[in-house]
Amino acid sequence: MAHLKRAFSSDHHFRDGRILSSMCTAPHELAIKAHMMFIEANLGNPDLYPGTKRLEGEIVRVLGELFHGKNLNGYMTSGGTEANITALWIARKLSGKRRVLFPISAHFSITKAVNLLNMEPVEIELDESFRMSVDDVEDNISDNSAAVICMAGTTELGVVDPIEQLSQICHGNTFLHVDAAFGGFVLPFLKELGYDVPKFDFQLSGVCSLNTDPHKMGLSTIPSGALLYRDVRFLEHITVDAPYLISNKHSTLTGTKNSAAVAATYAVLMHLGREGFKKVVKQCMDNTNYLASRVQELGFELAIKPVTNVVAIKLANPENVQKELVKQNWFVSKGRFPKCLRIVLMPHVTRSALEEFVPVLESTCRSMGEL
Ligand code: 0PR
Questions:
Q1: Are 223 and 320 in a shared domain?
Q2: How far is ligand 1, taken at its centre, from the CA of residue 241, in Å?
Q3: What is the 3-state secondary structure (H, E, C) of 104-156?
Q4: 250 and 334 part of one domain
Protein backbone atom coordinates (compact mmCIF):
# COMPACT_ATOMS: atom_id res chain seq x y z
CA MET A 1 0.00 0.00 0.00
CA ALA A 2 2.88 2.36 0.66
CA HIS A 3 4.14 1.77 -2.89
CA LEU A 4 0.67 2.40 -4.27
CA LYS A 5 0.27 5.61 -2.29
CA ARG A 6 3.62 6.86 -3.56
CA ALA A 7 2.65 6.09 -7.15
CA PHE A 8 -0.79 7.67 -6.70
CA SER A 9 0.68 10.84 -5.27
CA SER A 10 3.00 11.26 -8.25
CA ASP A 11 0.05 11.07 -10.65
CA HIS A 12 -1.95 14.13 -11.63
CA HIS A 13 -5.63 14.13 -10.74
CA PHE A 14 -8.67 15.80 -12.26
CA ARG A 15 -9.61 17.16 -8.84
CA ASP A 16 -6.43 19.32 -8.86
CA GLY A 17 -8.20 21.38 -11.54
CA ARG A 18 -5.05 21.79 -13.65
CA ILE A 19 -5.64 19.19 -16.35
CA LEU A 20 -6.81 21.27 -19.30
CA SER A 21 -5.69 18.81 -21.98
CA SER A 22 -7.74 15.71 -21.34
CA MET A 23 -10.90 14.46 -22.97
CA CYS A 24 -11.47 12.24 -19.95
CA THR A 25 -12.75 13.59 -16.66
CA ALA A 26 -13.55 12.61 -13.09
CA PRO A 27 -16.25 9.92 -13.27
CA HIS A 28 -19.61 10.57 -11.64
CA GLU A 29 -19.71 9.18 -8.07
CA LEU A 30 -22.48 6.77 -9.04
CA ALA A 31 -20.34 5.47 -11.90
CA ILE A 32 -17.59 4.65 -9.40
CA LYS A 33 -20.08 2.81 -7.16
CA ALA A 34 -21.47 0.80 -10.08
CA HIS A 35 -17.97 0.06 -11.36
CA MET A 36 -16.89 -1.37 -8.00
CA MET A 37 -20.07 -3.49 -7.79
CA PHE A 38 -19.39 -5.12 -11.18
CA ILE A 39 -15.59 -5.31 -10.84
CA GLU A 40 -15.43 -9.04 -11.77
CA ALA A 41 -17.88 -8.94 -14.70
CA ASN A 42 -16.49 -10.16 -18.01
CA LEU A 43 -18.62 -9.69 -21.12
CA GLY A 44 -15.98 -11.63 -23.02
CA ASN A 45 -17.93 -14.56 -21.58
CA PRO A 46 -21.51 -13.23 -21.64
CA ASP A 47 -23.08 -16.57 -20.66
CA LEU A 48 -21.94 -16.00 -17.09
CA TYR A 49 -23.06 -12.40 -16.96
CA PRO A 50 -26.61 -12.16 -18.33
CA GLY A 51 -27.30 -9.24 -15.99
CA THR A 52 -24.35 -7.22 -17.24
CA LYS A 53 -25.28 -8.18 -20.80
CA ARG A 54 -28.78 -6.77 -20.19
CA LEU A 55 -27.27 -3.47 -19.02
CA GLU A 56 -25.16 -3.34 -22.19
CA GLY A 57 -28.32 -3.88 -24.28
CA GLU A 58 -30.06 -1.04 -22.44
CA ILE A 59 -27.14 1.30 -23.08
CA VAL A 60 -27.25 0.48 -26.79
CA ARG A 61 -31.00 1.16 -26.80
CA VAL A 62 -30.65 4.51 -25.02
CA LEU A 63 -27.73 5.64 -27.18
CA GLY A 64 -29.57 4.42 -30.27
CA GLU A 65 -32.46 6.76 -29.43
CA LEU A 66 -30.09 9.61 -28.68
CA PHE A 67 -28.48 9.17 -32.10
CA HIS A 68 -31.79 8.82 -33.99
CA GLY A 69 -31.32 5.15 -34.87
CA LYS A 70 -34.02 2.53 -35.31
CA ASN A 71 -33.28 -0.94 -33.90
CA LEU A 72 -29.57 -0.28 -33.92
CA ASN A 73 -27.10 -2.92 -32.85
CA GLY A 74 -23.92 -2.40 -30.97
CA TYR A 75 -21.79 -3.14 -27.98
CA MET A 76 -19.47 -1.60 -25.46
CA THR A 77 -15.76 -1.35 -26.17
CA SER A 78 -12.71 -0.25 -24.24
CA GLY A 79 -12.93 3.16 -25.91
CA GLY A 80 -12.66 4.96 -29.22
CA THR A 81 -9.61 3.08 -30.46
CA GLU A 82 -11.24 -0.35 -30.22
CA ALA A 83 -14.48 1.00 -31.71
CA ASN A 84 -12.68 2.60 -34.66
CA ILE A 85 -10.65 -0.56 -35.32
CA THR A 86 -13.82 -2.67 -35.20
CA ALA A 87 -15.74 -0.34 -37.54
CA LEU A 88 -12.95 -0.48 -40.10
CA TRP A 89 -12.63 -4.24 -39.66
CA ILE A 90 -16.33 -4.57 -40.54
CA ALA A 91 -15.96 -2.21 -43.52
CA ARG A 92 -12.92 -4.13 -44.79
CA LYS A 93 -14.75 -7.46 -44.58
CA LEU A 94 -18.02 -6.15 -45.99
CA SER A 95 -16.44 -4.50 -49.01
CA GLY A 96 -13.40 -6.68 -49.61
CA LYS A 97 -11.62 -3.40 -50.43
CA ARG A 98 -8.70 -1.57 -48.87
CA ARG A 99 -8.86 2.19 -49.48
CA VAL A 100 -9.96 4.27 -46.48
CA LEU A 101 -10.64 7.99 -46.77
CA PHE A 102 -10.26 9.99 -43.59
CA PRO A 103 -9.50 13.64 -42.80
CA ILE A 104 -6.02 14.72 -41.72
CA SER A 105 -7.77 15.82 -38.51
CA ALA A 106 -8.75 12.21 -37.64
CA HIS A 107 -7.57 10.77 -34.33
CA PHE A 108 -4.43 8.61 -34.50
CA SER A 109 -6.49 5.52 -33.67
CA ILE A 110 -7.56 5.55 -37.34
CA THR A 111 -3.92 5.26 -38.40
CA LYS A 112 -3.55 2.29 -36.05
CA ALA A 113 -6.68 0.64 -37.49
CA VAL A 114 -5.55 1.20 -41.09
CA ASN A 115 -2.16 -0.24 -40.23
CA LEU A 116 -3.47 -3.31 -38.41
CA LEU A 117 -5.94 -4.13 -41.17
CA ASN A 118 -3.35 -3.58 -43.88
CA MET A 119 -5.60 -1.01 -45.53
CA GLU A 120 -4.59 1.86 -47.75
CA PRO A 121 -4.88 5.33 -46.17
CA VAL A 122 -6.20 8.22 -48.26
CA GLU A 123 -5.79 11.38 -46.21
CA ILE A 124 -8.32 14.07 -47.02
CA GLU A 125 -7.54 17.79 -46.73
CA LEU A 126 -9.58 20.18 -44.60
CA ASP A 127 -11.76 23.02 -45.84
CA GLU A 128 -11.47 26.62 -44.57
CA SER A 129 -13.44 25.66 -41.44
CA PHE A 130 -11.03 22.77 -40.66
CA ARG A 131 -13.62 20.16 -41.66
CA MET A 132 -13.11 17.22 -44.01
CA SER A 133 -13.14 18.71 -47.52
CA VAL A 134 -16.14 17.41 -49.48
CA ASP A 135 -14.41 18.36 -52.75
CA ASP A 136 -11.35 16.32 -51.83
CA VAL A 137 -13.56 13.34 -50.86
CA GLU A 138 -15.34 13.58 -54.22
CA ASP A 139 -11.98 13.67 -56.01
CA ASN A 140 -10.70 10.59 -54.18
CA ILE A 141 -13.67 8.30 -53.63
CA SER A 142 -14.01 5.45 -56.12
CA ASP A 143 -15.34 1.93 -56.56
CA ASN A 144 -12.22 0.80 -54.73
CA SER A 145 -13.06 2.63 -51.50
CA ALA A 146 -13.83 0.45 -48.48
CA ALA A 147 -14.84 3.25 -46.13
CA VAL A 148 -15.02 6.93 -45.34
CA ILE A 149 -14.33 7.92 -41.74
CA CYS A 150 -15.49 11.30 -40.52
CA MET A 151 -15.41 13.16 -37.25
CA ALA A 152 -18.22 14.46 -35.06
CA GLY A 153 -15.99 16.47 -32.76
CA THR A 154 -12.34 16.37 -33.78
CA THR A 155 -9.78 15.74 -31.07
CA GLU A 156 -7.88 18.94 -31.79
CA LEU A 157 -10.59 21.54 -32.44
CA GLY A 158 -13.87 19.80 -31.61
CA VAL A 159 -15.29 20.54 -35.08
CA VAL A 160 -17.89 18.46 -36.91
CA ASP A 161 -17.27 17.29 -40.49
CA PRO A 162 -19.96 17.95 -43.17
CA ILE A 163 -21.53 14.56 -42.51
CA GLU A 164 -24.82 15.31 -44.26
CA GLN A 165 -22.98 15.79 -47.56
CA LEU A 166 -20.70 12.83 -46.89
CA SER A 167 -23.77 10.71 -46.22
CA GLN A 168 -25.18 11.62 -49.64
CA ILE A 169 -21.88 10.77 -51.33
CA CYS A 170 -21.50 7.42 -49.54
CA HIS A 171 -25.12 6.25 -49.39
CA GLY A 172 -25.51 2.79 -50.89
CA ASN A 173 -21.89 2.62 -52.09
CA THR A 174 -19.35 3.18 -49.37
CA PHE A 175 -19.31 2.39 -45.65
CA LEU A 176 -19.49 5.64 -43.68
CA HIS A 177 -18.28 5.57 -40.07
CA VAL A 178 -18.68 8.54 -37.72
CA ASP A 179 -16.12 8.93 -34.94
CA ALA A 180 -18.12 10.72 -32.24
CA ALA A 181 -15.84 9.51 -29.45
CA PHE A 182 -15.78 13.03 -28.04
CA GLY A 183 -18.80 14.70 -29.65
CA GLY A 184 -21.36 11.96 -29.00
CA PHE A 185 -22.02 13.15 -25.46
CA VAL A 186 -21.83 16.84 -26.41
CA LEU A 187 -23.59 17.51 -29.72
CA PRO A 188 -27.11 16.19 -28.94
CA PHE A 189 -27.23 18.30 -25.77
CA LEU A 190 -25.74 21.38 -27.43
CA LYS A 191 -28.58 21.16 -29.92
CA GLU A 192 -31.11 21.03 -27.09
CA LEU A 193 -29.40 24.09 -25.59
CA GLY A 194 -30.11 25.99 -28.80
CA TYR A 195 -26.68 25.83 -30.45
CA ASP A 196 -26.51 25.34 -34.18
CA VAL A 197 -25.48 21.68 -34.53
CA PRO A 198 -25.23 19.99 -37.93
CA LYS A 199 -26.70 16.52 -38.42
CA PHE A 200 -24.14 13.86 -37.71
CA ASP A 201 -25.88 10.64 -36.69
CA PHE A 202 -28.19 7.85 -37.91
CA GLN A 203 -30.84 10.30 -39.11
CA LEU A 204 -28.52 10.50 -42.13
CA SER A 205 -29.20 7.38 -44.16
CA GLY A 206 -25.58 6.99 -45.34
CA VAL A 207 -24.21 6.63 -41.81
CA CYS A 208 -23.40 2.94 -41.24
CA SER A 209 -21.77 3.08 -37.82
CA LEU A 210 -20.93 5.55 -35.08
CA ASN A 211 -18.89 5.37 -31.91
CA THR A 212 -18.96 7.43 -28.76
CA ASP A 213 -17.01 7.25 -25.51
CA PRO A 214 -18.85 7.33 -22.17
CA HIS A 215 -15.42 7.64 -20.53
CA LYS A 216 -15.00 11.06 -22.12
CA MET A 217 -17.99 13.46 -21.85
CA GLY A 218 -20.24 10.62 -20.61
CA LEU A 219 -18.81 10.89 -17.06
CA SER A 220 -18.34 7.11 -16.86
CA THR A 221 -15.29 5.18 -15.75
CA ILE A 222 -12.43 4.05 -17.98
CA PRO A 223 -12.64 1.84 -20.14
CA SER A 224 -15.93 2.74 -21.73
CA GLY A 225 -16.65 3.12 -25.44
CA ALA A 226 -19.70 2.25 -27.49
CA LEU A 227 -19.94 1.16 -31.10
CA LEU A 228 -23.35 1.35 -32.77
CA TYR A 229 -24.07 0.01 -36.24
CA ARG A 230 -27.08 0.05 -38.47
CA ASP A 231 -27.36 -3.56 -39.58
CA VAL A 232 -27.07 -6.64 -37.35
CA ARG A 233 -25.57 -8.54 -40.30
CA PHE A 234 -22.47 -6.32 -40.14
CA LEU A 235 -21.26 -8.31 -37.17
CA GLU A 236 -21.40 -11.65 -38.99
CA HIS A 237 -18.35 -10.53 -40.92
CA ILE A 238 -16.16 -10.41 -37.83
CA THR A 239 -17.71 -13.29 -35.87
CA VAL A 240 -15.50 -16.27 -35.05
CA ASP A 241 -16.22 -19.69 -33.57
CA ALA A 242 -15.63 -19.83 -29.83
CA PRO A 243 -15.98 -23.53 -29.03
CA TYR A 244 -15.22 -23.12 -25.32
CA LEU A 245 -18.19 -20.82 -24.76
CA ILE A 246 -21.79 -21.87 -24.24
CA SER A 247 -22.83 -19.39 -26.95
CA ASN A 248 -20.18 -20.82 -29.35
CA LYS A 249 -19.53 -17.49 -31.07
CA HIS A 250 -17.45 -14.37 -30.41
CA SER A 251 -17.74 -11.04 -32.17
CA THR A 252 -15.68 -8.52 -30.24
CA LEU A 253 -12.07 -7.56 -30.73
CA THR A 254 -11.08 -8.12 -27.12
CA GLY A 255 -11.73 -11.43 -25.39
CA THR A 256 -11.89 -11.02 -21.66
CA LYS A 257 -12.97 -7.49 -21.08
CA ASN A 258 -13.36 -5.13 -18.21
CA SER A 259 -17.12 -4.78 -18.07
CA ALA A 260 -17.46 -2.86 -14.82
CA ALA A 261 -17.57 0.29 -16.92
CA VAL A 262 -20.71 -1.05 -18.60
CA ALA A 263 -22.50 -0.89 -15.25
CA ALA A 264 -20.94 2.52 -14.61
CA THR A 265 -22.17 3.85 -17.95
CA TYR A 266 -25.66 2.45 -17.37
CA ALA A 267 -25.77 4.09 -13.94
CA VAL A 268 -24.81 7.55 -15.25
CA LEU A 269 -27.18 7.37 -18.22
CA MET A 270 -30.12 6.45 -16.01
CA HIS A 271 -29.22 8.84 -13.22
CA LEU A 272 -28.50 11.97 -15.26
CA GLY A 273 -30.86 11.43 -18.17
CA ARG A 274 -30.95 13.96 -20.99
CA GLU A 275 -31.68 16.86 -18.63
CA GLY A 276 -28.64 16.00 -16.49
CA PHE A 277 -26.31 15.79 -19.48
CA LYS A 278 -27.71 19.06 -20.80
CA LYS A 279 -26.66 20.75 -17.55
CA VAL A 280 -23.16 19.23 -17.75
CA VAL A 281 -22.71 20.37 -21.34
CA LYS A 282 -24.08 23.84 -20.51
CA GLN A 283 -21.52 24.31 -17.75
CA CYS A 284 -18.71 23.19 -20.09
CA MET A 285 -19.87 25.49 -22.89
CA ASP A 286 -20.28 28.45 -20.53
CA ASN A 287 -16.67 27.94 -19.43
CA THR A 288 -15.61 27.54 -23.07
CA ASN A 289 -17.23 30.85 -24.03
CA TYR A 290 -15.76 32.51 -20.94
CA LEU A 291 -12.21 31.36 -21.75
CA ALA A 292 -12.64 32.22 -25.43
CA SER A 293 -13.60 35.82 -24.64
CA ARG A 294 -10.94 36.28 -21.93
CA VAL A 295 -8.11 35.22 -24.26
CA GLN A 296 -9.47 37.27 -27.16
CA GLU A 297 -9.61 40.36 -24.88
CA LEU A 298 -5.90 39.78 -24.22
CA GLY A 299 -5.21 39.88 -27.96
CA PHE A 300 -4.93 36.17 -28.74
CA GLU A 301 -6.48 34.86 -31.93
CA LEU A 302 -8.65 31.73 -31.84
CA ALA A 303 -8.26 29.06 -34.51
CA ILE A 304 -12.06 28.86 -34.76
CA LYS A 305 -15.08 30.10 -32.84
CA PRO A 306 -15.58 27.07 -30.54
CA VAL A 307 -18.24 24.64 -31.78
CA THR A 308 -17.84 22.28 -28.83
CA ASN A 309 -16.01 22.65 -25.52
CA VAL A 310 -12.54 23.05 -26.99
CA VAL A 311 -10.67 26.36 -27.16
CA ALA A 312 -7.81 26.50 -29.67
CA ILE A 313 -5.49 29.51 -29.45
CA LYS A 314 -3.36 30.21 -32.53
CA LEU A 315 0.33 30.47 -31.63
CA ALA A 316 3.56 30.56 -33.62
CA ASN A 317 5.14 27.93 -31.43
CA PRO A 318 2.56 26.06 -29.33
CA GLU A 319 5.00 23.31 -28.42
CA ASN A 320 7.31 25.66 -26.51
CA VAL A 321 4.41 27.37 -24.76
CA GLN A 322 2.99 23.98 -23.80
CA LYS A 323 6.34 22.98 -22.27
CA GLU A 324 6.53 26.20 -20.25
CA LEU A 325 2.97 25.79 -18.97
CA VAL A 326 3.53 22.15 -18.05
CA LYS A 327 6.61 23.26 -16.04
CA GLN A 328 4.20 25.46 -14.08
CA ASN A 329 1.87 22.48 -13.58
CA TRP A 330 -0.75 23.54 -16.10
CA PHE A 331 -1.47 20.64 -18.43
CA VAL A 332 -2.44 21.91 -21.84
CA SER A 333 -2.01 20.29 -25.22
CA LYS A 334 -1.42 21.43 -28.77
CA GLY A 335 -3.04 21.10 -32.19
CA ARG A 336 -1.50 20.88 -35.66
CA PHE A 337 -4.21 22.18 -38.02
CA PRO A 338 -3.74 25.08 -37.46
CA LYS A 339 -0.84 25.31 -35.00
CA CYS A 340 -2.51 26.08 -31.70
CA LEU A 341 -2.63 25.58 -27.98
CA ARG A 342 -5.59 23.36 -27.17
CA ILE A 343 -7.66 23.55 -24.01
CA VAL A 344 -10.54 21.13 -23.40
CA LEU A 345 -13.20 22.47 -21.05
CA MET A 346 -14.20 19.22 -19.40
CA PRO A 347 -16.56 19.04 -16.40
CA HIS A 348 -13.64 19.00 -13.93
CA VAL A 349 -12.35 22.37 -15.22
CA THR A 350 -13.79 25.04 -12.94
CA ARG A 351 -14.27 28.77 -13.49
CA SER A 352 -11.86 29.53 -10.63
CA ALA A 353 -9.19 27.32 -12.23
CA LEU A 354 -9.60 29.31 -15.45
CA GLU A 355 -9.32 32.59 -13.55
CA GLU A 356 -6.00 31.34 -12.16
CA PHE A 357 -4.85 30.00 -15.51
CA VAL A 358 -5.47 33.02 -17.77
CA PRO A 359 -2.87 35.35 -16.13
CA VAL A 360 -0.30 32.50 -16.23
CA LEU A 361 -1.03 31.97 -19.93
CA GLU A 362 -0.71 35.71 -20.53
CA SER A 363 2.61 36.14 -18.74
CA THR A 364 4.08 32.98 -20.26
CA CYS A 365 3.12 34.04 -23.78
CA ARG A 366 4.40 37.61 -23.24
CA SER A 367 7.74 36.33 -22.03
CA MET A 368 7.99 34.11 -25.10
CA GLY A 369 7.02 36.82 -27.58
CA GLU A 370 3.73 35.16 -28.46
CA LEU A 371 1.67 38.16 -27.33
N1 0PR B 1 -11.53 9.32 -31.50
C2 0PR B 1 -11.41 10.58 -31.04
C3 0PR B 1 -12.10 11.68 -31.77
C4 0PR B 1 -10.64 10.84 -29.91
O5 0PR B 1 -10.50 12.11 -29.48
C6 0PR B 1 -10.01 9.77 -29.24
C7 0PR B 1 -9.17 10.00 -28.02
C8 0PR B 1 -10.19 8.47 -29.76
C9 0PR B 1 -10.96 8.28 -30.87
C10 0PR B 1 -9.58 7.28 -29.09
O11 0PR B 1 -10.23 7.00 -27.93
P12 0PR B 1 -9.59 6.11 -26.76
O13 0PR B 1 -8.37 6.87 -26.30
O14 0PR B 1 -10.67 6.02 -25.78
O15 0PR B 1 -9.24 4.80 -27.36
N16 0PR B 1 -9.01 11.33 -27.62
C17 0PR B 1 -8.07 11.86 -26.65
C18 0PR B 1 -6.73 12.02 -27.34
O19 0PR B 1 -6.04 11.06 -27.66
C20 0PR B 1 -7.87 11.05 -25.45
C21 0PR B 1 -7.14 11.72 -24.37
C22 0PR B 1 -7.43 11.41 -23.08
C23 0PR B 1 -6.13 12.64 -24.58
C24 0PR B 1 -6.73 11.96 -22.05
C25 0PR B 1 -5.42 13.23 -23.55
C26 0PR B 1 -5.73 12.88 -22.27
O27 0PR B 1 -5.03 13.46 -21.23
O28 0PR B 1 -6.38 13.18 -27.60
A1: no
A2: 32
A3: CCCCHHHHHHHHHCCCEEEEECECCCCCECHHHHHHHCCCCEEEEEEEECCCC
A4: no
